Amino acid sequence: MASVWAKSFVNLPVLSVFFLLLLCLPPGGGQKKKENMLSEKVDQMMEWSSRRSVVRMNGDKFRRFVKAPPRNYSVIVMFTALQPQRQCSVCRQANEEYQVLANSWRYSSAFSNKLFFTVVDYDEGADVFQQLNMNSAPTFMHFPAKGKPKRADTFDLQRIGFASEQLAKWIADRTDVQIRVFRPPNYSGTIALALLVSLVGGLLYLRRNNLEFIYNKTGWAMAALCVVFAMTSGQMWNHIRGPPYAHKNPQNGQVSYIHGSSQAQFVAESHIILLLNAAITMGMVLLNEAATSKGDVGKRRIICLVGLGLVVFFFSFLLSIFRSKYHGYPYSFLIK
After folding, report:
1. If you write DSSP's letter for every residue of 30-99 in order, what string do you get?
2. Residues in CB range of 277: below 8 A, 6 or more apart
3. How do the pLDDT tens digits run along the chain, 336 residues long?
4. Which chain regions cross the lipid bilayer (predicted)?
5. CA-based, 20 to 30 A from 52: which of 99, 105, 150, 335?
6. Between β-strands 139-143 and 74-80, what pairing exists: parallel, antiparallel or unpaired?
């Protein structure tokens, strides 16, 4: 027993020296390896961004550079389906806005390695869609530098639209990175306005000896109605928010032309509303014509019935659309 204790006391200095050496050694190689890996990832992302403002990624690249740690940069990912066979017109429109935003960031003076723009196409990364339980495209997500994405890190495309300015505002909220959107010059509006002015000016010149048509009440009424139909159908909202024309479900291929929420709409929906309002107005005009004209009674009766049919049917259709968007609205007429 004494010999065992003696051996222990003999080994004490050796153990002390061993622990002292451990304390004096530099930090473990694991930390250094982590730093080297992070540096390699940042350098690779910067190299890709120098070639293209939006970095294309497949499943392996996504898992390595977006999902896997270490990472000290934020990543904006657009999940989309751009291949022609997918027939996703909304994806192409959203991609154009996304490219404008990414180029604005890439060529701005504030550009840094703290934020990168990437894209995952369904045909190049179907496993990523499955991993994230994603069943619609396009979808924009923010992957923060630390932690997992939260609910607010998914862009509300259906409610806000996909305009570059709206995306930039969302990114500023999630990353504190301010991006000023620079759009390439578009002269189509100016050219169209110049052509319209030239056309009107030429028409007035040709009819300079007979300008009575300017005082035509019917013509001005039709022009006023066109403006009213455009404004009441939501064309200005479309111009500001830039919503998609329609939505196609990638799972079953079903196309939706009416948005299910009262906070948003599709472009096709505004066209439908415009036509319904025009049909109802035509019905009211026919009813007024039947009541005020002094023609044949039988003809006036037919005009009255046609006008009444237009008002009743198309107003019922309009009310059913209103009911489908404002859930819980209790009233309906003919069409539910």
Report:
1. HHHHHHHHHHHHHHHHHHHHHH-SEEEE-HHHHIIIIISSP--SEEEEEEE--SGGG--HHHHHHHHHHH
2. 229, 232, 233, 318
3. 444 444 444 455 555 555 554 455 455 556 788 888 889 999 999 999 989 999 999 999 999 999 888 889 999 999 999 888 887 878 888 899 999 999 999 998 889 999 999 999 998 888 999 988 888 888 999 999 888 899 899 998 877 888 899 999 999 999 989 999 988 777 777 888 899 899 888 877 877 777 777 777 888 888 898 889 888 888 888 877 777 788 777 667 778 888 877 777 888 889 999 999 999 999 999 998 888 888 788 888 898 999 999 999 999 988 888 888 887 777 777 776
4. 187-206, 218-237, 272-290, 302-322
5. 150
6. antiparallel
In the block, tokens 């540096």 appear at 39
Are 272 and 282 in contact by the 8 Å Cβ rule? The answer is: no
| Residue 175 to residue 142: CA distance in whole angstroms | 9
Q: Is 311 helix (H, G, I), strand (E, B) or coil?
A: helix
Written as one letter, the residue type at 218 is T
CB 54 within 8 Å of CB 120: no
Residue 117: φ, ψ to 5°: -110, 130
Radius of gyration of the chain (CA): 33
Domains and CATH numbers, the chain: 29-175 (3.40.30.10), 211-325 (no CATH)
Q: 69: cis peptide before it, omega within 30°? A: no
Residues 6+ apart with CB under 8 A from 258: 266, 269, 272, 321, 324, 325
